[in-house]
Design brief:
Structural class: alpha+beta
CATH superfamily: 2,3-Dihydroxybiphenyl 1,2-Dioxygenase, domain 1
Keywords: Metal-binding
Organism: Streptomyces zinciresistens K42
CATH class: Alpha Beta
GO molecular function, one term: metal ion binding
Distance between the termini: 30 Å
Number of strands: 8
Radius of gyration: 15 Å
Strand content: 35-45%
CATH topology: 2,3-Dihydroxybiphenyl 1,2-Dioxygenase, domain 1
Number of domains: 1
Protein name: Methylmalonyl-CoA epimerase
InterPro entries: Glyas_Bleomycin-R_OHBP_Dase, MeMalonyl-CoA_epimerase, MMCE/EMCE_epimerase, VOC_core
Helix content: 10-25%
Bound molecules: carboxymethyldethia coenzyme *A, cobalt (II) ion
Order of helices and strands: EHEEEHEHEEE
Strand order of the largest sheet: 2-3-4-1-5-8-7-6
Shape: globular
Number of helices: 3
Length: 146
């Protein structure tokens, strides 16, 4: 069951400048940052609030690390902006299977590694009314590393 908005993914050209915008404008601080080579991103997670399912909602700021990455390709075409939304669930495998049965393309056979040791998969935007949609199960114990 999908129980929260886990994050909104925002593509940017310059992660440090974008982080500074969110800090200076809204007072949001970086909760966690990492490079995910498989996804081709350098990212910062800004925690916005905790949620009633025991998780939290974040903004995920994304800068591409290589030109052939999904985010680089999207930035070339669209410029900066909202790239995807992510719903949180306790069981990404079960939710992805159930959604696949409804005829929506799930992009990965098996969930892959996301931020902070989470397990993630994506639904094709063309099957979701134009919205690239991610499903996330957080790691059992979140251990932020800066
Ligand atoms: N939102 C909405 N539509 C999108 C999109 C997005 N983020 N990315 C691509 N599309 C649309 C394109 O506009 C294009 O539409 P048209 O055919 O009408 O022009 C169509 O989808 C195909 O796009 P493309 O540019 O040819 O790109 P690809 O098909 O090569 O890749 C996708 C699209 C969704 C399969 C790819 O971006 C992907 O695998 N995404 C999942 C991984 C990812 O996004 N990782 C980065 C985030 C990591 C994280 O959150 O941790
Ligand atoms: Co994401």
């Amino acid at each position: 069951m999908l129980t929260r908005i886990d994050h909104i993914g925002i593509a940017c050209f310059d992660l440090d400048r974008t982080v500074e915008f969110y800090r200076a404008t809204y007072g949001f601080e970086v909760y966690h940052s990492e490079v995910n080579e498989e996804q081709g991103v350098r990212e910062a997670m800004l925690k916005i609030n905790e949620t009633s399912d025991g998780g939290a909602s974040y903004l995920q700021l994304l800068e591409p690390t290589r030109p052939d990455s999904a985010v680089a390709k999207w930035l070339d075409k669209n410029g900066e902006g909202v790239h995807h939304i992510a719903f949180g669930t306790a069981d990404v495998d079960a939710d992805a299977a159930g959604i696949k049965d409804k005829g929506v393309r799930v992009l990965y056979e098996e969930p892959r590694r996301g931020s902070m040791g989470s397990r993630i998969t994506f639904l094709h935007p063309k099957d979701c009314h134009g919205v690239l949609t991610e499903l996330v199960t957080s790691a059992p114990v979140e251990s932020p590393e800066h």
